Amino acid sequence: MPLNIPNHIAVILDGNRRYAEKRFHNRLLGHYYGARKLAEFVKWCRELGVKEITLYCFSLENFSRDEQEVSYLFNLFREQIQKYAYDKRISSSKIKVQFIGRLSLFPKDIQKDMNALMRKTKNNDEFIINFAVAYGGRAEIVDAVQKVVRKKIRSEKITEEVIRKELYLSHYPDLLIRTGEVRLSNFLLWQCAYAELIFLPHVLWPEFSKADFHFCLEEFTRRNRKFGR
Q: Is residue 229, in this structure, part of any structural domain at all?
């Protein structure tokens, strides 16, 4: 059966710490393995012709984790952002990198690096990677409504389209994949209203394989989705 390849895939990358604990590692190392898996996933998507991915990497709630873990994650972000910034394949492959969320909550140096990478890749249009960081779906809607209010748009003129344009992410995913659990965890609550949802509760993100990905695509195809939204 030929696969229907989604234009836009959203992923909740869950299970890094449990993956490390299962292997008797320091649980923080799970985030390192999760970052490695992410690089593989990007490659698979590009090979299949996916045009855009949105990745739930760090929620607003994650700021409340213990100081050691948050510090480790910040350093991992610094490392990964620099890696993307100096990767010649980003420019040659015309990859756009975007960060969505309340970015002002991050340390100033990380904000600076994020903004520099977004500026550097803003005109690339062949493949888009959206990293959802300091992100919460409800917070996104609140921030969008506040922007609408600040523009003093009359109430009868406020439509779904008006609000959509003020969201961090104005594009709608066709498919959402979650590893490790069966819930949305406050991710893309507006944008995923019509997405196909596939949960893999027994697969932790660093374990996510190409076979798992193809299973998701096969299930997406079986649902006989009508594209166009």
A: no
C-alpha distance from residue 14 to each of 126, 127, 142 (Å): 27, 23, 25
**Catalytic amino acids?**
14, 62
Q: How many domains does the chain have?
A: 1
- Other residues' Cβ atoms within 10 Å of the Cβ of residue 119: 9
Q: Over 22-80, what HEC string results?
A: HCCCCCCHHHHHHHHHHHHHHHHHHHHCCCEEEEEEEEHHHHHCCHHHHHHHHHHHHHH
- What's the domain range around 157? 8-222
Domain membership flag for residue 207: yes
Residue 142 in any domain: the answer is: yes
Question: What is the distance between the terminal CA atoms of the chain, rounded to a whole angstrom?
Answer: 23
Give per-residue pLDDT as tens, 12-64: 999 999 999 988 778 899 999 999 999 999 999 999 999 999 999 999 999 99
In a domain, 85, yes or no: yes
Assign residue 18 the CATH number of its domain: 3.40.1180.10
